[in-house]
Design brief:
85% of the residues lie in helices and 0% in strands. With 423 residues, the protein is mostly helical. Helix 2 packs across helix 7, helix 4 packs across helix 11 and helix 13 packs parallel to helix 17. The longest helix is centred in the N-terminal third of the chain and has 54 residues. The two termini are 20 Å apart. 44% of the residues are buried.
Amino acid sequence: MKKQIISAIKSDFFKKFSIYGFGQFFNLVTPLLLIPYIVKVCGEENFGKVSVALAISFVLIVFIDYGSELVGVRDITINRNDKKELQRIFLTNLVSRFLVLILVLVVSLVLIFCLPFLQSETILFALSLLIILGQYLNQSWFLQGVDNINWISISNIISKIIYVIGVLVLVVKKEDYIYVNFSFGLGTIISNGIFTYLIFKKYDFKFEKISKREIKDFLKRDFKMFSSQIFVAIQLYSPVVLVSFFGNNFMAGQYRIVEQIIVTFKTYIFLFFNFTYPRVCNDINNNPSTAKRNWLIINTVNVLFIVFLMLILYFNSEIIVTFFNATTVFDLSNLLKIAVFIPILLAISIGLKQLVLGYNFQKQYVLITTVSVIISLILIVLFLPIYKLQGVFYSLIITEVIVIIFYLFCIRKRPNHFLAKDV
């Protein structure tokens, strides 16, 4: 195993992952650098408001992606050498998702001006919609499929630089919190717009009419995967909304500070999934004899890496929380010590998720996701009044354990499956 791990680290795959990771480094570090500034200028309560608007935007992003980061990547990976098929997949995706974008924008604006919870911060929520427009222009699913890692990295760097500049220039007093998500959205629109154009130029794609049937087939085929991702998004981003709704914006700001520290590592884990998932799919389809070994090595290294990082985080929690200008350092430090278990469990479940999706167990995946989200929401609502913010993190930990158990049951229930013992 040791030799295999060393060999994997020296491989071209690891080198590409390093390039990809360098670009994603900006995704991870930018919020950590900006949050102390935002909390200092705007206060924890207004930061809580920003966090709620951002969480809702991230849920809406799932509608815009419409499963592209899973199904789309798999389709592009399989057909990466067929230019005509690549163009058909790309254009069908673009047109279909544009229709979804228009629908989401219209419904969102109506809700912003009608629901009291959103109406109280109309400008903040309206400006936050720029984020989903930027996500529509994000074609990283395509770039992942064709293994164009450099463009993904450059795009992330550009968008985050614009985001940082926007916050530092526009957010200078307490009331300017409304421009935080605006800056985020502006960065993604400019950066992703540039690379959408470059994709057309490099791959010589031509605009052509997409039939209603193709659009209908796309929306129908990917609906199940899309719907499952909605539940995933709700599970990821609903806690801060629930804390704000059942508690207050100050509590939401406190929760978000601890969550952002953890999200830094969760983001890495999700990016790890996005980067390695095409490789797993390719091995399963083209190299089934080595698929098990490759999957095990990659994910073992990743889990051990996360455990190491979480140990550092645990023993330095108070120092880390102090960096964010929080008013209750001791309480948030204790929360962070609980929250460090979440990335470890997530790293395990993400590896199992690759197998579930790689072997097209989509029905089981949708069921697992749906059940786990429902359990998570119920636990948060029950634990929040009793254990306060600690209850939210207890709920998330319990949910991840349940997901891992479900994934293992799904994978092992078939005798000739990937994780079955070699005969």
